[in-house]
TrEMBL record:
CDD domains: ABC_MJ0796_LolCDE_FtsE. InterPro entries: AAA+_ATPase (IPR003593), ABC_transporter-like_ATP-bd (IPR003439), ABC_transporter-like_CS (IPR017871), ABC_transpr_LolD-like (IPR015854), MacB-like_ATP-bd (IPR017911), P-loop_NTPase (IPR027417). It holds the Pfam family ABC_tran. Keywords: ATP-binding, Nucleotide-binding, Transport. This is ABC transporter, ATP-binding protein, putative. SMART domains: AAA. GO terms for cellular component: membrane protein complex; plasma membrane. It comes from the Bacteria. Residues 26-248 form the ABC transporter domain. GO terms for molecular function: ATP binding; ATP hydrolysis activity; transmembrane transporter activity.
Length: 249
């Protein structure tokens, strides 16, 4: 896939340009992932070195099957790499026990997926309250914070609606509001605008931009959506299991 970007500054830099670790929210060191298929093993990720600085919006692009979702899942601590290390906010998540990692993810990462994953039986506000409850925020405080989060995404008037009564864009904004519960420092999103029409897509993109630029969240997105390039600080192009700086013009 050929995409255009405004400046070569958006391109990934090679490891010689790497900043000291304290500046980076996410660091991947030699990340390798092998899958097995019958007796065969094949490498989807081939020793990737990579990093993202705080407050950046980083986009991950690449052809279908190039390993974007696998890489995002490893960076999020949802998958363990075959080899290599991942550091989030200065902590090595690849060394954490599963309980510690689950706690770390809960406290620090907000996830946004293409298919919303909202609970259909719960209202927009309740969908957010559930996550707040998991994070130890309950009762009136959770109700208040859920309302505040819905205001943040412009959906305060829809707090009592169930997902079936919301448009795709509104559902995605509820999902974003939910991912912000507890103020995570990192937002990870897989195709957050893929299911949205142009207006809703732009609202979601603007929201993600505000989170990064006004609130210092680090946003990592897998996307094929060229509109997101307008707000991206950097674009990484993944191909054949490695990070390529070419292929983007
Ligand atoms: N659990 C798994 N077991 C075996 N192979 C897998 C597994 N998950 C992914 N793969 C394979 O690894 C490769 C990379 O998959 P991945 O989903 O990471 O790619 P992608 O770049 O996100 O693709 P797309 O843009 O189509 O979503 C694909 O060939 C896929 O079939």
């Amino acid at each position: 896939m050929v995409v255009s970007i405004k400046s070569r500054n958006q391109l990934d830099r090679r490891s010689s340009d790497r900043k000291p670790k304290q500046w980076d929210t996410i660091i991947a060191e030699s990340v390798t992932m092998e899958y097995k298929s019958g007796n065969q093993r094949y490498q989807v990720l081939k020793g990737i070195d990579w990093q993202i600085q705080r407050g950046n919006i980083q986009i991950l692009m690449g052809p279908s099957g190039s390993g974007k979702t696998t890489f995002l899942s490893i960076l999020a601590g949802l998958l363990t790499p075959s080899l290599g290390n991942v550091y989030l906010l200065g902590e090595e998540i690849t060394k954490m026990s599963s309980a510690k990692l689950a706690r770390f993810r809960r406290n620090n990462i907000g996830f946004i997926f293409q298919h919303f994953n909202l609970f259909p039986a719960l209202t927009a506000a309740e969908n957010i309250e559930v996550v707040l409850n998991i994070k130890g925020i309950r009762g009136t405080k959770a109700r208040y914070q859920a309302q505040e989060l819905l205001e943040h995404v412009g959906l305060e008037m829809h707090a009592n609606q169930r997902p079936a009564n919301l448009s795709g864009g509104q559902k995605q904004r509820v999902a974003i509001a939910r991912s912000l519960a507890g103020h995570p420092q990192i937002i990870m999103a897989d195709e957050p605008t893929a299911a949205l029409d142009s207006t809703s897509g732009h609202r979601v993109i603007e929201l993600l931009r505000r989170l990064a630029k006004e609130e210092g969240c680090t946003v990592l997105m897998v996307t094929h959506d060229p509109r997101i390039l307008d707000v991206a600080d950097r674009v990484t192009y993944l191909e054949d299991g490695i990070v390529k700086t070419s292929g983007i013009t």
